[in-house]
Amino acid sequence: MARTLTFSIFRYNPQDPASVPHMQEFRLEETESMTLFIALNRLREEQDHSLQFDFCCRAAICGACAMVINGRPGLACHSKTKDYPDKITLMPLPVFKLIGDLSVDTGTWFRGMAKRVESWCHTKKIFDPTAQEERMDNALAERIYELDRCVECGCCVAACGTALMRDDFLGAVALNRVARFVLDPRDERSEQDYFDIIGTDEGVFGCMGLLGCQDVCPKSLPLQEVLGKLRLKMAFAAANHLLPRFLRREIKL
Ligand code: SF4
Ligand code: SF4
Ligand code: FES
Fold first, then answer.
1. By the 8 A CB rule, do 240 and 248 touch?
2. How far apart are the CA of 120 and the centre of ligand 3, in A?
3. Can you give the CATH number for the domain in which 21 is found?
C-alpha cells in the first residue's frame, strides 16, 4: 500500500513584511519512483501555488534544486522519497541569501567566488582563432574534467562548519576550482599567485578538514584529496620562501 508522506517545509517570504518564518505541513500520497522534485511540484500544483523552490534540469546537472533534506544538503531531483521515512523535513540551504521558502540565491555567491579565485585561464599568449587547437595529454584532460563536474549546487558550502561561521571562507567548491586551474597547463599562474589567493585563513588554512563537504557532494567529487593536496602544496609554497633553493620542493596535485 502506498505511504502517505508528511512534508514539513520551511515557509518565509523576506519580501513580505507580514511573513513570519515557520514550518508548514503537507500530506501527499507517495507514487512509484517519486523524487522530492516530483513531490514538490505536486504540492505546488495541487495544494499551495505560493510554494517557492528552484529547479531547472531535473537531472542533477544544473544544481538549482539543492536544499536541506532531513538535515542533510542534497538535490531534490536526485532524491527518491522511498529512501526517506514517512516524515520529510525540507529547509533552504544556509549560507546563501534566502529568496523565499526553499529558494536561495546561489548565483551571487558563486559569481563572487569565481571573481575571488580568478576562475579563468591566465595566459599571456595571444589567442589565434585560426591556429590548431593545442593537444593535451588525455589522462591530464580527464583529471581536469573530473574536477570540472561541479554543478555549483552549494551543498558542500551548506554542509561546511567553517562556511557557516565565517562568510569570508572560500569553501571546498572554490578550492576545487583553483585545483582545476593548477592542473591546467594553459594557466600560467605561479605557485605564489595561487598562494596569494588561497594560502590564507579564508582559503586552505581555514578548512577544518572534517569533510562534511565531500560527504554531501551529489557529484562525488574527490574534495578530500583536492583539499589535502592543495593544503600541502600551499604549506610548501610558504616554506620555500625561507629555504635555500636546493631544499625547495614543489608538490604536484
Ligand atoms: S573539510 Fe574544509 S571545506 Fe570541507 S566541510 Fe570541512 S571545513 Fe568545510
Ligand atoms: S563541489 Fe559538489 S557539492 Fe560543492 S558545489 Fe560542486 S557539485 Fe555541489
Ligand atoms: S533540477 Fe537541476 S540539479 Fe536538480
1. yes
2. 25
3. 3.10.20.30
